[in-house]
Amino acid sequence: MIVGSLYPTDDTKDVGNNPNPLTTATTDYWGSTDGSVTVNSPESYWLGYISKENLPSMYHTNIIYLDDDDPNDKKIVVKDLTDDGNFPCTYIQRGIDYSSELYVESFHKEYDGVVSDLVGNPYKRYLFNQNYAEYSGLLYNNNSYQRSTTASIDILCYIYDATGNTRIYPSEYPITGQLWKSIFYSSGSTYIDDLYKFLYLGEEYTFSIRFPDSGTWYTYDFTIKAEDLADGTGIIWDVNNQVQLRFFIIGFDFGTGGALRNGGAITFGASFMAKVTGHDAEHTISVLRDGHGGHGYNEKINFASNFYWGTPARYENPLFTYGYKEDVEFGYDAVMGVSQSNTVPYIYTDIAICFSYDGGQWFLPYYNLDDVKKSFSLFYRVCRSNVDSYVSGVSYATDVAPDNQFLARLKTGNITDPTFKHSLRQWQYDEFTDNDFTEEDVPHPSPEPGGDTPGDEPQNMPHDDGDPPELQKNRTIAVPAMFITQYALTADELQTVGSNLWTSWLNQGTDVYLNFFLPYAQDFGTLNIGAALDFIVSLKVFPFEFTIDYITPAANGVRMGTGHTDFLGSSTTIVKSQIICIDAGTLKVELPNPYNDFRDMYNCSALCFMPYCGTVELNLQEILGRTLKASYFIDLQSGGCTCVIECAGDEGDYVIASKTGQIGFSIPLTATNAGQLTAQLMSDATRAVGTIAGTFFSNINKNRELAMNIAGLNQGAQNGMDFDYAQTKADYYQQKANLGVAEGTLHGALGLANQGIDMLSRSAVEMPMLSGGGSAEAFMFADCVSIQIRRGRYKKPDNYPHSIGHYNLSSHPISYFKGAFTGNPSTGSNTNKGFCTFVGIDTSGLDCRDDERAEIISLLESGVYL
Amino acid sequence: MKIIFYKITDDPRTVEKNLGEFIYPVEATLLGSCSVHDPQLVLSYNSLLLSSNYFEIVEWKTFYFMGEPVLSPGGRCIVTGREDVLMTNKEKILALNAYCSRCESKFERYAIDSKVPSLVTSIVTNLQFSGHVFAANGSQRQYLLSVKGGSLS
Asked: A804 and A786 share a domain?
């Protein structure tokens, strides 16, 4: 029995010119799963019409199609098949109650039209002549884009009433009237491999991944949270704050003998959304990657071979329509219809998470940071229809290299443009709610581009050309060996060095002479403590850690002069290059265009804040949409630096701004420049230690001869020791004897010295702020380079364009500029006359009197309503 | 000649006026010598005249803004008109080619229009580079000690 035939049609809906049906249904279900009407691409049938051929009425009471002949009055039409067997349709489906408005709406949202037209251009479509859906922005990403930017995929969809003023469905969160239940979760950090433990047949669950509110706007703890309706806290699973969440994988296990029966389907809808407190949950995203066959099945789901059009899967998936009017809903990738004889052990599909969490950073660049309260969730539900028992599960993977381009299936065609600019997020849109450049106010497009209309680029306009000079970021200037050694020390190491400079020799025990005095004298030519200071060229503190690229191990600690004395006592690092370059990151400058006109770029400023250097004004028009790179070139010896901002251009990166500053700050080693208090304290400490040391060594010399007699000569004669050794021993005894004499005085000096060291340590932290090396402005306590963009927020007088208009700058017959009729057709009252002013009026063909001509020209120049 | 009176509400600068409420037709004669642009008509008084503000001389296919009517003895009324050149020549005007400098309905969005905006306030957007390389506290600071010699041993 032939039930009906499906005919192709073209965009003109000229259904009468396609006599050959694409396919013919021979069973009760259109596109039956018996294989007779398997199609390669379901989309190809979405534009078509059905001819009634022995249609069993039980299935074909109604048919639905999109009547879009009038672009201003597109509507979903539910038609009784018994009236007419041939009609244009966008899509047909049988066996469903088409009278359901919700169904129609979801149908409309998901399968209607070419949604790529929406990109950057909010538009509306009517549903049943009463309501319309408004779309804004779109939703696309690939991995590289995710990595460099975040929060880049959005889609907005609202259902309004016919007036466009009222949202029929509140865009609120959470879903009301839904069954929320906790779900299984695992504590693994890379992959949840324990599937099938939840989401049982016939029930609806919600899986939520939430980024809890945080006081810091750019970092978030990543959590998986089982929704808890009672107190809203749920169970939080922290995944190290560094997870690179890429996919959600939803699987269905039919088990042995299970099957997706003819006509049945597993359906799910998924939504990924971020909600910001105080704002509606608008910027919802859903992205689906091609499904994959999973364990045991080992066959990728391929629409060309496995998707059976007869299954109603595509049409049942809008499960969220009951509460989620903002969501992009889809699900067919996860659905596979099979005949009764087949089983599908597993079906997997990957839902790509569109936001990237590399490094745990999530940027919300367009927010007032004070308002940022964020939660981030993925929801999906699964239900079944005419399916044998199965369990399904969800997992997530941290695949870091998903190269697919994820695309929400809002349209039937392909979106090839990798990025969609000018899309607004809802909160951005809300920021400009008083914007009167909305579609309602400005329903007409810009003038048709003509041969000489503004905006056309001259044919010989020169383009960017030539290679910009490349910054040599990897160049190094080696520290001159044998002359200077630059030790890269931690705070603890510095503390140790400082301590050893002053005090360690007092605690060297019996080997003090060999371990300290002798090497010290060899290094510095004197035993005067403090002489080592003369060998310190500088001590600086830098607000960043030296990377391995610029340092090399120094196993012998910190040494000076001829290098006999180790003032650290442990290995440390030495700087290899005097000049280094540190990468301060990248930034893709993306801003919404709230007005979608010149005001988006009017009276704008972009101020780049470079920590330790200052500020530089950037040209916003030059950087908008471009990726910027920030680098710091630093002279470690002087502490000077230059921050360079590069812009990624078509021909390579080029420098757009630079500013010098001071990033390394000297720590005073003497009393001259550390402030009065520091100076006095340090001076006292130095003098005290020096005095004590002088007395000490004086005493050593006085008793030297005696010691030699006692220890050196006697023992040398007895044991054959050489003179030097005897002298050393003599020194040791004398030192030991004199230590006791000097002990009381030493302790007092040591206290002062320690105070000096404390001051030294404190100054290591505090002095950068006191030092004259950087101005107060230059020392900005920021940890990164940033750009502050100021743009105007404008408010036009109400009904402004009606009496003044905007620049048109085009030449056409005057009738071209007539305003659309938006008034009451019954009364003829037109509320949108279209105010225009003209210049350069060509009055050819105006056969009227001269006085009339002059008056007409005058009126046209001063302004008329068309 | 036949005169049709109307009551219009459109702005006088409207090219295609909605004639709106039709008042009544009447026969009238010219008052002496007068111009076609600013004619004076004599017609029988009718109170509906007082609610009219626009009329058409059907024979001339010309539309006029109606001036203040003057009542004269004998039940007559003198009406003065001023030609509405826009309405009278509307088809011809719409066919003219002209350069539109300003337009309510179709315009070039990105042409800077100083008449349009009034700055209400400034919106600040802060964007940060990805590299948070500088220490937020002392723990990440690095000290560089430069000494003479030192690395010889």
From this structure: no
Please report the residues numbered 432 through 451 in chain A whose beta carbons come closer than 8 angstroms to any beta carbon of chain B: 442-447
**Cis status of the peptide bond prior to A174, with omega within 30 of 0:** yes
> How many independent structural domains does chain A possess?
4
What is the predicted ipTM?
0.85
Taking an 8 Å cut-off on Cβ atoms, the answer to whether A787 and B138 are in contact is no
Higher pLDDT, A510 or A197: A510
Examine residue A691 and state whether it is found in any structural domain, yes or no: yes
The rounded distance, in Å, linking the Cα atoms of A581 and A227 is 47
B140-149 pLDDT, tens digit each: 778 888 888 8
* Dihedral sign of CA atoms A544, A549, A555, A557 in order: negative
Confidence of residue A857 (pLDDT cuts 50, 70, 90): very high
Name the H helices within A124-277. 143-148
Binary contact (A847, B144; C-beta < 8 A) = no
Count CB-CB contacts under 10 A for residue A482.
10
B44, B77, B63: which is closest to B4 by C-alpha?
B63
Assess whether A622 and A735 both reside in one domain.
yes
Distance CA A154, CA A141 (A): 10
Q: Does A795 touch chain B (CB under 8 A)?
A: yes
Do A144 and A285 fall within a single domain? yes
Q: Is residue A453 part of a domain?
A: no
Residue A455 contacts residue A449 (beta carbons within 8 Å): yes
The answer to whether residues A636 and A664 touch, using CB atoms and an 8 Å cutoff, is yes
A52, A75 in Cβ contact below 8 A? no
Please indicate, yes or no, if residue A584 is contained in any of the structural domains: yes
Structural contact between residues A267 and A4, judged by C-beta atoms closer than 8 angstroms: no
* Position A456 in a domain: no
Give residue A548's domain range. Answer: 468-791
Q: At what angle do helices A723-770 and A491-502 cross, to 10 degrees?
A: 130
Whether A95 and A131 map to the same domain: the answer is no
* Residue A781: C-alpha distances to residues A769, A776, B137 (Å): 10, 10, 10
Q: Is the pTM of this model over 0.90?
A: no
Looking at the complex, does the CB of residue A744 fall below 8 Å from at least one CB of chain B?
Answer: no
The helix/strand count (H/E) of chain A reads as: 15, 35
DSSP class of residue A664 equals S
CA of B143, closest CA in chain A: separation in Å? 4
Alpha carbon distance A768, A726 (integer Å): 50
Q: Which amino acid is at A568?
A: L
Domain ranges in chain B?
2-93
Q: Rounded to an integer, what distance in angstroms lies between the CA atom of residue A691 and that of residue A697?
A: 10
CA-based nearest residue to A489, from A561, A584, A582, A567: A567
CB of A87 closer than 8 Å to CB of A79:
yes
To test the contact with chain A by mutation, choose from B104, B126, B139 the residue with the greatest count of A C-beta atoms within 10 A, namely: B104
